[in-house]
Specification:
The protein is of the alpha+beta class. Helix content is 29%, strand content 29%. The strands form 5 sheets. A 5-stranded mixed sheet has the order 1-2-3-6-5, covered by helices on one side.
Length: 382
């Protein structure tokens, strides 16, 4: 639902895109009020994982003011100043650590102190991107904006599967005064595929069966395929049993596409065969490569954010078909910052050649915008 503006407070209704709105409110400094949060549900109001996100934002800022209604169906959020620094947060196990980590990744460069965050919870969830995917495909994108990788790090200390979690990651991010504009229109050809299969509190043979199934699909595509196994033991295996796989395709232009699959949650009544998990992940990776573009489709919204907040210069990037989440994020960017993107559908030159095979490459979108010149006020030199 579009925002209504009342005395510089943006008003929204409903629980959708809650995370987007809190993130952009924190960066823009504009207060928001969200009403009718699941007001017609049997269990109305904010969920535990949403309250946990508000608590995390409160930890990385100073002076944030939050007002919740008695039923939890309405929230007023007045953001404070981004501080960053040392943060330890126990994430809700209803969502993966990726739900929280993406927000820290977006805020990291604009904090007062370099971020050093320890997040505990579920490292691999069906609802959110895993920590492996963020490490492989999102960090290289941020690197293009800040240029210096000194201090940018994501370390998986322990893995944790749902429902109980028990995983832990450490995220470190340097601060920057401003982000550089970006021209990124080439992504090249896939040159190698790497991956990791994790097995937590299950038989080690599970991991090997997943590897064999995934390689069976990927070796038809190119010969350079290497998949590690991470068989965690004891306290490093988290609190719940599970296994899964994360595959990364790297191109000769340093673009990374990522896909992942995991076993069903214990107690869900579903049976997960390792062979099915391996094939499913390989097929998802092929689908992501088919979509193409300069980055993985899961992180198009992060790219749009950093392009919009860049210096007052033109940034452009060629991406695959836009996800629904990204389209809504672009609308929110306009509401909070007044930034508008020019979107052009690029015609494929090789459409004629591909008709014979019955497969044409996915259409590409050229995203262009002029950055607002967002400056990290803590790094301003007087």
């Amino acid at each position: 639902m579009p925002a209504t503006v009342q005395s510089d407070v943006l008003k929204y209704k409903g629980s959708n895109f809650f995370r987007q709105r809190l993130l952009l409110s924190t960066l823009s400094g504009r207060a928001i009020k969200i009403e009718d949060i699941r007001s017609t549900h049997d269990d109305p109001g904010l969920r535990e994982y949403e309250v946990s996100l508000i608590r995390l934002l409160d930890k990385v800022t100073n002076g944030t003011r939050v007002e919740l209604s008695q039923t939890g169906t309405s929230v007023y959020y007045q953001p404070g100043i981004l501080v960053g620094g040392q943060v330890t947060h126990s994430c809700s196990t209803q969502r993966g650590i990726g739900y929280y980590l993406e927000i820290l990744l977006a805020l990291g460069p604009f904090c007062k102190e370099p971020m050093n965050a320890v997040l505990q919870g579920v490292t691999h969830s069906d609802l959110d991107v895993s920590v492996d995917k963020i490490k492989a495909a999102a960090l290289p994108v941020l690197l293009k904006f800040i240029l210096v990788d000194d201090g940018l790090e994501l370390k998986v200390v322990r893995r944790g599967a749902p429902p109980l979690g028990g995983g832990e990651v450490v995220f470190k991010c340097p601060v920057r005064r401003h982000l550089r504009p970006l021209q990124w229109t080439k992504w090249g050809l896939v040159k190698r595929i790497r991956g990791v299969v994790y097995a937590l509190r299950v038989s080690p043979t599970m991991a090997n069966r997943v590897v064999d199934a995934a390689k069976g699909v990927m070796l038809k595509f190119l010969p350079d395929v290497y998949i590690n196994t991470d068989q965690c033991r004891g306290s490093n295996a988290g609190k719940s049993p599970g296994f899964g796989i994360s595959l990364v395709a790297e191109t000769n232009e340093k673009t990374f596409y990522c896909a992942e699959a995991k076993s069903a949650e214990p107690g869900s009544g579903e049976i997960s065969l390792p062979e099915d998990i391996g094939k499913e992940c390989a097929q998802r990776l092929l689908d992501e490569i088919y979509r193409g573009g300069a980055l993985d489709s899961s992180f198009q919204w992060l790219l749009a954010l950093w392009m919009a907040l860049g210096q007052k210069d033109v940034s452009e990037c060629l991406v695959g078909p836009l996800s629904d989440y990204t389209i809504t994020f672009l609308q929110h960017l306009k509401e909070f910052f007044g930034v508008m993107f020019k979107l052009e559908v690029m015609r494929n030159d090789d459409d004629e050649d591909s008709d014979d095979e019955g497969v044409s490459p996915a259409s590409k979108i050229k995203m262009t915008c002029v950055g607002i010149g967002y400056v990290n006020i803590s790094k301003r030199t007087m």
